[in-house]
Design a protein that fits this description.
The chain is α+β, with helices and mostly antiparallel strands. The protein is 38% helix and 23% strand. The protein is built from 9 helices and 14 strands.
């Protein structure tokens, strides 16, 4: 690890990174060099802006100096690990786990329903409804509490993937009470009790998450192929112009084609294909085409989809699907 890190710091220094920045990075990773890990760190001046580990990543070492930061590899990591909420439910409550996009682990909340009268006895005769009704009411009340907690969890992590497990009747009651919103709902294994299903459920969750990520990517590329010609643009100049105007719904990047090229940006400039005069005398800054485009997309709430020329050929390696003509 030490040898690998030294080669990256040498590359940073040759690229123009200040020695103080490289030293700050060295301090940030010093306690991680003795164990295998994948670390992402962003720094400026003599301080670390953020640093975190990415478990499970198997990619070449990367080091770059410049602005905007080269975050496309990080976005790739996040794209295949979308946010989700997992609910393991029974008739008394649920265990709700929310996992943010790009995260490996999340936080779990135990929800206990307000009613604990859940037994449905069947004594028979005229008294049977009086026994069944309180139990049924309790199930409905508990399902409402779980649904409210699930809705909050989905909102907190911005998830559109809901994974459910547990008692079939409780699942139906839960889903019937969730607010109407765009959701993909998938069943996973097991229940709340100690039934030995945790390992199997973890596999189901990983598969469901990966499938959802791929479905999202395919939906983006299908939208591009099926869109009206007037809302599809290709090439650096037209794409940057649309990004600057906030018109882009989805930015498409073929990294192999668009890995070269430059663009301009600034505190008062989202992006431009060539230098422009800015108010106050502050000149635009020069950056990599892809990095400037990604920055503008994130600042204008545009989605980003990485593709290749085999599946979606884009002239110039960069293009966009616009929100309007």
């Amino acid at each position: 690890m030490e040898v690998r890190f030294r080669s990256m710091t040498d590359l940073l220094l040759r690229s123009g990174a200040p020695a103080t920045t490289v030293e700050a990075l060295r301090h940030a990773v010093a306690d991680r060099l003795d164990r295998p890990t994948q670390l992402v760190a962003f720094a400026t001046g003599d301080r670390i802006l953020t640093a975190f580990e990415l478990p499970g990543v198997a990619s070449p070492d990367r080091a770059s100096w410049g602005a905007p930061a080269h975050i496309l590899p990080l976005l790739s990591w996040i794209a295949i690990r979308p946010s989700y909420v997992e609910v393991v439910v029974d008739r008394t409550g649920a265990d709700i786990t929310e996992v943010a996009g790009g995260a490996v682990h999340g936080s779990t909340t135990v929800v206990a329903g307000p009613d604990d009268e859940i037994e449905r006895n069947a004594p028979g005769g005229r008294s049977q409804p009086s026994f069944q009704r309180p139990a049924t009411d309790a199930w409905h009340h508990n399902a409402a509490a779980v649904a409210a907690a699930t809705a909050h969890a989905l909102s907190r992590v911005g998830a559109r993937l809901l994974l459910v497990a547990g008692d079939i009747r409780a699942i139906h009651l839960l889903l019937a009470r969730l607010p109407q919103r765009p959701l993909l709902i998938r069943r996973v294994s097991g229940g709340r009790g100690p039934d030995g299903s945790a390992a199997r459920r973890a596999i189901d969750v990983a598969r469901a998450r990966a499938a959802y990520a791929e479905e999202t990517r395919l939906a983006m590329t299908a939208a591009l192929r099926n869109a009206a010609t007037s809302t599809v643009i290709e090439g650096a100049d037209r794409t940057l112009t649309a990004l600057a105007g906030g018109r882009v719904r989805t930015l498409f990047i073929d990294r192999r084609v668009a890995s070269t090229g430059t663009a301009w940006f600034g505190s008062e400039l989202l992006c431009a294909a060539r230098p422009v005069a800015l108010p106050g005398g502050d000149g635009p800054r020069r950056g990599g085409l892809v990095d400037v485009a990604v920055r503008a997309a994130l600042l204008t709430d545009a989605a980003i989809c990485q593709t290749n020329r085999q599946t979606v050929p884009i002239a110039g390696g960069i293009g966009a699907l616009c929100r309007y003509r």
